[in-house]
Structures are given as C-alpha cells and as structure tokens.
Amino acid sequence: MKIADYRDIPPVYINNEQAKGVIGRVAIGKKDGASNFCMRIFQLEPGGYTPIHSHEWEHEIFIHQGEGKVWCENNWVDLKPGTVVFIAPGEEHQLKNTGDKPLVFVCLIPAGPPEL
Description:
The chain is an all-beta fold. The protein has a domain at 14-41. It has strands spanning 12-14, 20-28, 37-49, 59-65, 68-72, 75-79, 84-87, 93-97, 103-110. A hairpin with a 2-residue loop joins strand 5 (68-72) and strand 6 (75-79). The two termini are 22 Å apart.
C-alpha cells in the first residue's frame, strides 16, 4: 500500500517548444507495484500547455483545481474543478491553462506506455 501527499513526490518539469509550464508527477506507477494503471498528477502554470498529440492508449482526466481548456474533436472545451475527460486511443488532444492560478489534474493511463 502507498499513501502519500502528491506534492511530496519529486516533480518533473517540462518546458520546451511543444509544452510550456508543465509539472508532472507519477503518483502511483510501476515503482509502487501498480501493474494495470499509472496515476499522474499534472500542474500547468498560468499560460502553460501540454503538447498537441495523440497516442494508441486511452486516458482519463479529472480536473482538481484551476481553469483551462482541452482540445477535443477540433474544438476547445472549458475545464473547471470537477470536470472529467475521457480521451480515446488515437484522439488528438491538448490541455492549456486559461486562468491565473495553476491548473491541476489527475491523469490515468494504462500500464505499459511511458509514465511521464
């Protein structure tokens, strides 16, 4: 069993041409013995965004705090605390922070793909 405050998990900072102001943490993953899923916590700083991309696996997102938008089926859709998002395999997507505070969300992926 693992019980932890996600903020105590070492962060990975991502800032490049494809992504800006992204802080990622593997909350529960392979190192914890999770064989089916990986739980990641992401924080997008104000003005931050993930890369626009697609991949072969699904993932599920839960917005914990902040405001933003997700690129979904050629449209930007608003995100707020409590919003859930299902992204199917092959679906192009991107998240961005449109607020003035961090956008924090939980992202679940199946075991196998890179955890971060």
